[in-house]
Design a protein that fits this description.
Layout lengths: L1 E2 L9 H18 L4 E3 L5 E3 L9 H12 L4 E8 L2 E8 L8 H28 L6 H29 L8 E4 L6 E5 L1 E2 L6 H28 L2 E3 L14 H10 L7 E3 L2 H16 L7 H10 L1 H18 L2 H10 L16 H17 L10
Parallel strand pairs: 1-8
Antiparallel strand pairs: 2-3, 3-5, 4-5, 6-7, 9-10
Helix pairs in contact: 1-2, 3-4, 4-5, 4-7, 5-6, 5-7, 5-8, 5-11, 7-11, 8-9, 8-11, 9-10
Length: 367
Amino acid sequence: MASGDVTGSGAAPDELTERLAAARPYIDALFPGVVAVEGPQPVFLLRESAATSGLRERFLELRRRLVPLGLLPLLRARTGQPVLLLIPRPAPGRWAWQTNALLLLATMATTFYSGFLQTREITAAGFPGSAVAGGIAFSASVLFILGAHEMGHKVVAIRRGIDASLPFFLPMIPPVGTMGAVIMTRTPAPNRDSLMDLGASGPIAGFLAAIPVLLYGISQSFIVNPGRLQDVVNIPDPLLIRWLIEVMLRPPGDTIVLGHPVLFAGWIGLIVTSINLLPAGMLDGGHAVRAAFGARVHTGLSFVGAAMAVVMGFYPMAILIVLLMRRGHVGPLDDLSPLSPSRGAIGLALVAIFILSAVVFPSPFQW
């Protein structure tokens, strides 16, 4: 999920001055004793008491009151001093839904064709099935998981007042048929709790959606003798899939499981979830670690996330993480209020989901 720039202004200097003057009574009422600092940017020093008691709630109220003025407040620490800054609020995003619809249709086509080819190979090996039905089932399953993931983000964005687009589905050639989906945001999360909610909602929703897909896909798969098949491609399975196969099918040790296309759709859903949970940049895992640990730790863990992508075999993602690290992370508007204990528990749940969903591909450089 990408985030847009929040510092741009379409207001003339005089108009901006009027907005700032109108905002001052709200600031004085909610943060008594603030001291304005002379300079090109509106900065207010907060008293120590004003930066502790009820800070989260007072900041949310100030954010609400500044919406009609076209301003965004930010709470930051400068040289250990809590400060309040005001910046122009970006104009609402003009999201062209037609683009989302076209990309969705294209992804439906590429995922259908991917499932069609997979099922055709299964039927060619003598197993029952319809290539058309398999293509439809694969496409519907992949889009269900990806749609749940992105709509999890969208629902949280609406509830937290974050300007976000509809999902952009990304088509790709077979055998996968898609590169996932993203939504774009133009305003940051209000505070660390909201940032954690935004980052966690997609992986949790996508993971939960993948479970019934996996259950059905495994139930429709076949236990076969390896000698019956030619050119078998073995791919590593996430821990969750290995557990479910063992419980549902109990395959003998000298056999393999020929996966139904719906099982492969669930596999893709878990892989997308694990990649998004890498603790780097503007990925969902990056949002979570930024919310939990702050900017400095987020920067360090982004390097760790890139290294994890290399170890897992996702080399293009590792390169993309490194390239995007220069942008950093905009962080929440209120970067001073601590993360709530309940959100810490959500962070631990994300770690568990990553462990259940991740795979490590064999390195192509092994000799």
